[in-house]
Amino acid sequence: MEQIIFYILAFIMVFFAIASVSSRKILRAVVYLLFVLIGIAGFYFLIDYNYLAAIQLTVYAGGIIVLFIFSVLLIHHIDAEIEVATLARRILVGLASLIGAGLTLSVIWAHPFVVAENSTKPTEVREIGLGMLSYGEGGYILPFEVISILLLAAMIGAIIVAKGTRLTLKD
Amino acid sequence: MIPGVSIYEILTVTTLLFFIGIYGFVTRKNLISILLSVELMLNAVAVNFVVINKYLYPDMLQGVYFSVFIIAVAAAETALAISIIINLYRLATSVEVKATETMKY
Less Cβ crowding at N or C end of chain B, within 10 Å? Predict the structure, then answer.
């Protein structure tokens, strides 16, 4: 059962990823990316990390995609077709990407992974939160605080940059 | 771990997603589409962290933490990039890559 769901999810993700990078209409490309992100959230559910799936759905599908659609509607006409690279360039880059993917896949498939058995213990959100806030060995309190400063700085910076020249003219 | 699915198949899917993202990053000429490709690559990497955590070290949670941090950094990066793109659209009335040569004043 899980196997079938995984294959369906994998097919959806790869198909819509290709559609997203090759669609000529930008709004459609954003919606295809949304399908890929939801597929990844389903994948997190499948692998039993419910917390990550919730984060993926709220931050990506709920936040980032809305931001993308907002900026697309602000900047483009809805049915405007975007400029694409020439055919020769696309073929060249596609070949290079295929070679890179083949190289990486050959390394992955040749590597003997030692998969741990009996790993069906469910992960609790409490455990994740405790690990993220512990300052003992293997705790992640420092990156956690740094990321909060980063988010604050990004928020203020985005407001300042998006406001543009009007902010400086008043001074 | 997912019953019946090996780690190789999952890593294959994420590798494909990553290289599709690289293809889009190089061939697209629109700044928003380039940002979409970057999101694709970031997601593939985050899934890789989680999968290797779950399959090889199921008692640890380090991959989950790294994925959470990747998602947070991606959110910050997207917000900043879109604000820069909107500002650039005001200056150049275009979001094509070739219009960005006049960004520095």
Answer: C
The whole domain housing A101 covers 84-110
How far apart are the C-alpha atoms of A115 and A127, rounded to whole Å? 23
- Clarify whether residues A8 and A53 are in a common domain: yes
pTM for the full model? 0.89
For residue B9, which amino acid is it? E
- Please give the ipTM for the structure prediction: 0.90
Most A CBs within 10 Å: which of B9, B43, B85, as the mutation test of the A interface? B43
B4 touches A3 (CB < 8 A): yes
Q: What is the pLDDT of residues B3-46, one digit of tens each?
A: 778 889 999 999 999 999 999 999 988 888 999 999 999 999 99
Interface of A with B in 38-77 (CB under 8 A): 40, 43-44, 46-49, 51-52, 55-56, 59-60, 63-64, 67-68, 71-72, 74-76
Sign of torsion, CA A27 A32 A37 A41? positive
